[in-house]
Amino acid sequence: MAMDNRVRELAARLLSAGYDDLPPREQRVLRRIAARTAISRDISITRPSDLSFGERVSDQVAAFGGSWTFIFLFAGVIAAWVVVNVWVMSHPADPYPFIFLNLILSMVAAVQAPVIMMSQNRQAAKDREVTAHDYEVNLKAELEIMSLHEKIDDLRMRQLGDHFERIEARLAAIEAAQK
Questions:
Q1: Domain total for the chain?
Q2: DSSP 153-179
């Protein structure tokens, strides 16, 4: 109950809003501030061992298909195909417009593109999760800084009050001494 009151007081003081009016993410951050617990330690990024077989394959295909090794290897295969079918074979299996080579290239692209898209979609989901976590960490840091500013301002006001009281006491002593 005391924690609940502290969270509601933080919402009103730091965000100038009611706790129930805040989105769940901001409520979670306020609860963490009130409990004095860290946010930065509890992110759950998927580990490679947690991935399914298809997800691991799509990541590997995307990693290899987007590499210079793949580009150079594929260029070498195409060049070898052309050389073999134009100059080496007397009766080429795939003569000049290279229709079979075009079919193979189309099939590779047709299979590779969706697999790479699966990997990119998964990566985008991970990026969204990390971004949401970063937002929470940044929000907590901002709210903690605002809270520290309030504490420093309060301390400064008390110091100034004490200082003015001492000055008034001195002035009163000076006036009493002059009479």
A1: 1
A2: HHHHHHHHHHHHHHHHHHHHHHHHHH-
